[in-house]
Design a protein that fits this description.
mainly alpha; about 80% helix; disordered C terminus; globular
Amino acid sequence: MPIAVYVLGLAVFAQGTSEFMLSGLVSGIAADLDVSLSAAGLLTSAFAVGMVVGAPLMALFSRTWPRRRALLLFLAVFVAVHAVGALTPSYGVLLATRFVGALANAGFWAVALTTAVSMVPDRLKGRATAVVVGGVTIACVVGVPAGAVLGERWGWRSAFWAVAIVSLPAVLAVLRSIPGGRGTDPAAAPVPVRHELRALTGPRLRPVLLTMALVQGATFCTFSYLEPLLTRETGLGAGWVPVALALFGAGSFAGVTVAGRFADARPVAVVATGMTALALGWAALALAAGRPALALALIPLLGMLAFGTGTALITRVLGLASGAPTLAGAFSTTAFNLGATVGPWAGGLALDAGFGYRAPVWVSALLMAAALLVAATTAKGRRPRAGERRPSAAVR
């Protein structure tokens, strides 16, 4: 595996820390800025909205640039907005910085995914995807719990400064390791946009993108409100929140690692098994939330299933959209973060409706049920030919 692929994973680690660290900071932000808990949770949704909007826009904006230049610009903007966010006393400005930072992150993700898979042969594309996505899981293991500790000791602003500082080595690593050309052949002309869009709107790809959005919506719905669930429903002290986040991240890293090895050869089995287990797992967590030991045992398992399934789905999208070298990563990023937008929003609605701190977990279970319904409906609508067995179109 080229060292440049691991460098991309390093940069994603810094950005992933920012995307997910609010799950351990929402109470501190709400108190400091005098807003509701659900409003603080919407900072995660604002980031996700920026990712959804920014992925295709930033990919198109930078599609004729050398990939190294695009990656460096996106990282520089990301660092700058985190410094502004750490300084501002305004919820509105903080919300804006989350959106702009997400635009930069989305552009980086879109370019990084296609860059990584372009550097390796077909048999290693799943592993290359897993390395990049693995940066997110390492963020969950190390960065997010560290952010929670910083937030508890020195306030949530210290976590924002930490993300900006940690991103600086990634800038240097990208500068030294990523080739300057647009792809494997720097002299090659980019594929026309209309050809890429045609490849991305095919009937085989749409169900996979919808499935990815629902799976990630279920993940982020609970993850965004994990801190109040543990401290106000499970009965654990605030010191357990970084531990729980690290457990989720450790499970996520294991899931990405396993999916990276099997997603190329057996994508249907990985996705179908993961989706079914997630639907049952979120329901189990909702039922077990009042039992600390059982809740803590389920958290890493759910992290493993969520990110393992998500990695397999990203690999599948990149495979189906091989005719869209610029926008395939953007559409994967958009679907991933569309779920991250809807999930916290739906969880916040359930909280505001007075259904209790377990409500977001039940919403996660319902979103997974919807994902399974999409798979079943799509499979029913596509009849196999005589003597042919076809997997669900949602996971093919």
